[in-house]
Amino acid sequence: MKKLLLIAAVAIGFQTAIFAQSNASGTAQQNVQLALSNALEIKFNSNNSTTGPTVTLPFNSVTDFQNGVISSDIDLYVRSNKNFTVTVNSSSNQFTYTGSASQNTTMSVPSVLGIMVTSNNTGGSIGNNFSSNSFNNINSNSKTLFQNCTYGGNQNFTIKYKATPGFNSPSGTYSTDVIYTATQQ
């Protein structure tokens, strides 16, 4: 009887193995492509915008007029999927005047306003016209501020402005726009 039960168990196991192997399967395959375009933006850290807050340099004493006034740090960042350069220029070679003076209100941007790099985390180098230890004047012609910058999601830099107007201009508000342009290489 034991032999008969053993033979029956083996036969049932063999039959189950045959049925287990008959399951069907299939596959499907699909190609997924990412269509990336060139991506680039430059913004001010203080307000996460392409238009930075107004920088006001107050001249309250004779010493300020003689030695100049320096801004606090201005932080910008670039996000790019390719290497890039950054240029800087003023919107005009002359400041725009607002006030009530009747005498000459013409003030030259290149002779008054300078910029200095205080931090460079772009992966690139400071352009030939600028420095991290002195202020260099800007004008309406674009000059390379940073060159050979490395692509990335948070390539940032910090600058300061210095204005030294001297004593040839009447009281009032003198303004110009400073424009930073990031360009992929």
Account of the protein in words:
This protein has 185 residues and is of the alpha+beta class. The chain has one domain: Immunoglobulin-like. Helix content is 16%, strand content 36%. It has 3 helices and 12 strands, in the order αβαββββαβββββββ. Strands 1, 2, 3, 6, 8 and 10 form a 6-stranded antiparallel sheet that branches. Strands 7-9-4-12 form a 4-stranded antiparallel sheet, with no helix packed on it. It has a two-stranded antiparallel ribbon with strand order 5-11. The protein is elongated. The N and C termini lie far apart (88 Å). The model has no long low-confidence stretch (mean pLDDT 91).
Keywords for this entry:
single chain; alpha+beta; Immunoglobulin-like; six-stranded antiparallel sheet; 3 helices; 16% helix
Question: Which SSEs are present, and which pair or pack?
Answer:
Elements: H1 2-20, E1 40-44, H2 62-67, E2 69-70, E3 74-80, E4 84-90, E5 96-98, H3 109-112, E6 113-121, E7 125-126, E8 136-137, E9 143-149, E10 152-163, E11 173-175, E12 178-184
Antiparallel strand pairs: 1-3, 2-10, 3-10, 4-9, 4-12, 5-11, 6-8, 6-10, 7-9
